[in-house]
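User: Before I run my own analysis I want an independent prediction to cross-check against. Here's the chain; please return only the structure tokens and, at the end, one sentence I can use as a sanity check.
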Amino acid sequence: MRVPLRDEAADAAYAAGWRIVRKTPERAARLVFTAIADRTWHRYGAGVRQLERNLCRVLGKDAVDDEVRVLSKKVMRSYFRYWLEVFRLPEYDRGRIVGKMRVTGEKKIFTNLDAGRGVVLALPHMGNYEHAGAWLVHQGYPFTTVAERLKPESLFDRFVEFREGLGMEVLAHKGASAYGRMARRLREGRPVCLVVDRDLTESGVDVEFFGATARMPAVSAALAVQTGAALIPVTLWYEGEYWAARVHEEIPVPAEGVRQEKIRAMTQELATIFEEGIAAHPEDWHMLQKVWLDDLPGSPAEAPR
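Assistant: Structure tokens:
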């Protein structure tokens, strides 16, 4: 079957990114990506409009105003910085990946893993989680993660190759086999890293998130309940030329309730911690998609405009 032209173009663009951008002088590349971010923001397409609706939730506003517009421009610059770094990350050596990373609370991860207990690291779409993953690998803890199936297949393969090149084990997002393999890795005392602030399966858990109902994946809590692994949230952001991360306290499995009730309670706690991290660094939350139920098709409610 012939690959659609749009998919072919996307694959070619990403291929060029990993081939050309990674070899371009860094200062010049940063100027180009900042200009692309600003142009995208000025064009005010669907992604930017949704981003601003999301930021209204975060800031507690009923409508987009000058503050939201200024913030959304900062988010777009942060978002395109992420993509620039994705293309250039294979060129970074260990000294840069580790030396430019500022992490607090990381002993919570290492103590559990060194004791033979698996760890589920749950993250939102903040900062550069690819770099954070490379940092964890360089600390001596290779991990398992999942990747969303992309079209064409060659583009999905590029992302898998990129992440595997950083030392990650990458599984396709859909399928019971991926869940089963993650559970096995956790029982082996290894880490699993998941980005879980947006549901991709339409079978997530409804949570209260910035004062409204959102849907988040239940997989991280489900894995912790099933395997006994530690569920540890991590939030990320940029600090100038540095990458920063906060490793939060473990979310314990509730003593009471059936399995689904425990998963729901833990996912809600995860959403509350993500709230805290996003509110502290909203300029580095790269969420240009719909999260809240009011924004989804068929919802009777109106989202902020």
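Sanity check: The chain is about 50% helix and 15% strand.
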